[in-house]
Design goal:
This protein is of the alpha+beta class. Helices cover 34% and strands 29% of the residues. It has 4 helices and 4 strands, in the order H-E-H-E-E-H-H-E. It has helices at residues 7-14, 36-52, 77-85, 88-91, and strands at residues 18-27, 56-61, 67-73, 95-104. It has a 4-stranded antiparallel beta sheet with strand order 2-3-1-4. The longest helix is centred in the middle third of the chain and has 17 residues, at 36-52. The protein is elongated and about 55 Å long. The two termini are 23 Å apart. The model has no long low-confidence stretch (mean pLDDT 96).
Length: 112
């Protein structure tokens, strides 16, 4: 670590924190069920729609045999849990979803 960060900088950043929800999607036992490709396409369509609507701030599919993706959502955890419970892949048992409350900082973005 070469950048020096002061206590005052940490406190100033912490004061700007905003609440978000972190949705962790893991592959479930029905990942390869009959019709899985069509269900996954509907899942993708829904996730991209939620992103376009601003409900998902950051959407990150994960290339893994166990983890399916990560979404940072702009709604409280309880609302995020309800939204994700209606996901086609979650409903079909292809994915499981854990939602956690988290905080983010204004201006944080993924590099382009």
């Amino acid at each position: 670590m070469s950048t020096t960060v002061t206590d005052d900088q940490i406190l100033a950043l912490a004061a700007t924190a905003k609440p978000y929800s972190l949705a962790l999607l893991q592959w479930g036992p029905e990942r390869t069920m009959d019709g899985a490709d069509a269900i996954e396409l509907e899942h993708q369509r829904r996730m991209v729609s939620l992103r376009a609507e601003g409900v998902i701030a950051i959407l990150c599919p994960v290339a893994s045999d166990t983890m399916a993706g990560v979404a940072i959502m702009t709604v409280p955890a309880e609302a995020a849990e309800k939204i994700m419970a209606e996901d086609p892949c979650v409903r079909a048992g292809m994915m499981r979803c854990e939602v956690h409350s988290c905080h983010g900082f204004p201006g944080d973005t993924l590099p382009q």
